[in-house]
Design a protein that fits this description.
This protein has six helices and 13 strands. By secondary structure, it is α/β, with parallel strands linked by helices. The protein folds into two domains: 170 residues, Alpha-Beta Horseshoe (Leucine-rich repeat, LRR (right-handed beta-alpha superhelix)), CATH 3.80.10.10; 74 residues. The strands form three sheets. A nine-stranded mixed beta sheet has the order 1-2-3-4-5-7-9-10-12, with no helix packed on it. A two-stranded parallel ribbon has the order 6-8. Strand 1 and strand 2 form a beta hairpin. The chain is rod-shaped, with a radius of gyration of 45 Å. The protein starts with 8 loop residues before the first helix and ends with a helix. 27% of the residues are buried. Bound molecules: 2-acetamido-2-deoxy-beta-D-glucopyranose (NAG) (3 copies). The site of one 2-acetamido-2-deoxy-beta-D-glucopyranose (NAG) has 4 residues, from loops. One 2-acetamido-2-deoxy-beta-D-glucopyranose binds next to loops. It is found in: Cell membrane. It comes from Oryzias latipes.
Length: 323
């Protein structure tokens, strides 16, 4: 039962198509042609590698499925132009001068399966950077010499991620909590980073130890610090670190020891005091007893002396009688 006439799905679709068409013709960056210095084929592959480009190509076909802009000097991926390409499956941006990718850079690329950001100058990866890439299967982000920080939740939403390569960056630590939860992840590249082999990285080292088969170039995945562990493989120190990092005591342990110490001290003091009291009482008791005995002795001596004397006298009397 329809009370008021509603716009049918067809009208809506038409409206969207119209809007898109206008948007496309109005947009300076998108067309059905092919960008300067790029080669576009009918398989929807756009090839712009090694063309000395310093900016992201304009005039990209809207339906582009593969875009290769490697070996240029592009400094920025403009979110607006990139996110028009909602059918993009493959994006190779390797060997450029990208310093930053933001939360909105890949905001609309839900079909993207392959992304290559290697050989750039990225320094850090934020929380939501790859969040919208729900179909991402392979992410290559190697050889960014200044890349020293990846947010713990950077890959949390990439449920289809199978291959992650962050080799030859400047990473010292990596929180693997969200990586462990990725169901499809089967290959990791971590080699050539100055990994810290201290307790902060204990989980990572233990992971490499337990699932060595997952790690590409595991032999080159080595500690950069501390000095005495330099060059040791992460897989090698995994167990060692586990035991080492868990023998130290937490603040609750110290509190426990302080409490136990106090209890023992208190118990000792109380029992010593009790013992002292008992001894004093006992001594007094003994002393009183002695005094009583002495008193009794004195009084009985006084009473017994005449008797004793008479006894002695009697005895001497007897002997004298016998004699
Ligand atoms: C990067 O691109 C430049 C050309 O812009 C090229 O000369 C160089 O060999 C490339 N480097 C790598 C590692 O592919
Ligand atoms: C790598 O990181 C360290 C600090 O962790 C920094 O001192 C060094 O300059 C970085 N290297 C590069 C190439 O940015
Ligand atoms: C790793 O990240 C998770 C989630 O952000 C956090 O709860 C956890 O404490 C982190 N682990 C370490 C060792 O920093």
């Amino acid at each position: 039962m329809r009370l008021a006439p509603q716009p049918s799905a067809q009208t809506l679709r038409l409206l969207v198509v119209l809007l898109l068409t206008f948007g496309v013709t109005a947009s300076p960056v998108i067309s059905t042609g092919c960008p300067d210095r790029c080669v576009c084929d009918d398989q929807l592959v756009v090839q712009c590698a090694g063309q000395h480009l310093t900016t992201f190509p304009v005039n990209l076909p809207l339906a582009t499925r593969q875009l290769i802009i490697s070996n240029n000097r592009i400094v920025e991926l403009p979110p607006l132009a990139l996110n028009y390409l909602s059918d993009l499956v493959y994006l190779d941006c390797s060997n450029n001068s990208l310093t930053e990718i933001s939360e909105s850079t890949f905001g609309n690329l839900r079909k993207l399966a392959y992304l290559d950001l290697s050989f750039n100058t990225l320094t850090r990866i934020e929380d939501r950077t790859f969040g919208p890439l729900a179909s991402l299967v392979m992410l290559r982000m190697t050889d960014n010499p200044g890349l020293s920080e990846i947010h713990p939740d950077a890959f949390t939403e990439n449920e289809n991620l199978q291959v992650l390569d962050v080799s030859r960056n400047n990473l010292t630590a990596l929180n693997i909590t969200s990586l462990l939860a990725l169901p499809a992840l089967r290959s990791m590249g971590l080699s050539g980073n100055p990994w810290s082999c201290e307790c902060e990285n204990e989980d990572l080292c233990l992971w490499v130890h337990l699932e060595t088969f997952k790690f590409q170039d595991e032999g080159q995945t080595v500690c950069g610090s501390p000095a005495e562990m330099q060059g040791l493989r992460l897989g090698e120190v995994g167990i060692q670190l586990r035991t080492f990092c868990h023998q130290t005591l937490g603040s609750w342990d110290y509190l426990f020891f302080v409490a136990i110490g106090f209890v023992i001290f208190a118990a000792g003091t109380v029992s010593a005091w009790l013992m002292g009291v008992v001894m004093v009482l006992y001594e007094r008791y003994i002393k009183r007893k002695d005094e009583q005995l002495e008193n009794e002795d004195e009084s009985s001596e006084a009473a017994h002396v005449p008797m004793a004397r008479t006894e002695r006298e009697n005895r001497s009397l007897k002997t004298s009688l016998i004699v």
